[in-house]
From TrEMBL:
The keyword Membrane applies. Signal peptide: none annotated. Belongs to the AzlC family. It comes from the Bacteria. It is found in: Cell membrane. It is a multi-pass membrane protein. This is AzlC family ABC transporter permease. The chain crosses the membrane at residues 20-40, 46-71, 136-157, 169-187. Keywords: Cell membrane, Membrane, Transmembrane, Transmembrane helix, Transport.
Amino acid sequence: MKSDKGGVYIKRILKIAIPYTIPVMLGYISVGMAYGLLIVKSGLSLWAGLAMSVFLYAGAMQFVAIQILIAPINLIQVALMTLFVNIRHLFYGLSFVDTFKSYGWKKQYLIFGMTDETYSLLCGVSAQEEIEQETLFFTILILNQSYWIVGTVLGALVGNMIHFDTTGIDFAMTALFVVIFIEQWLANKNHLPAITGVLSAIIAIKIFGPSQMVLPAMVMMFSFLLVVRRYKSGGDNRG
């Protein structure tokens, strides 16, 4: 009887979580396959790519890791490169620090699995009365990493059987961001965060250039939204 109830609960969770992750699934399987293909073409094994997708799971940094493995550089360079590629995750963590601290052991995986796309999804997830929020978040992260792992394996398996130009396949990630952005714009009445993000990105590109714009844009977005939050909090306290 208990197992039946557990199975029903799991089905209910998946029924809610899977629709949220469909855009990520399409992007992650496509880009994951590109990563798997690149692993094989670089002379690395399927197991190396699979291990990175399971234990590293860092998206763009995994592509960088291929170059590090085939042309090793010193540890200081690796550390600095990793910091600059993934420093944006600092801001993701700050956004959820209060939410995750009460999630117990699940918090560790939620921190590990917080990718760009997953962060965007969690920001737009609505509260579900049927299941706990932490369970929904946890399930979404597991599903998203599973898509990436499946893409990696598929790409590596077919890498030696098909030959085609993969130039531009990484645009799937850009398209994925656009889809998630539109969905959140339509789902939320407050468009200030979205407008702030767009304007910050434009300003950062103009000032710092495309290759150096990520961190300045994140700083501008975070600073502006923090000021707005404090202003609203002050207004509520005065009221």
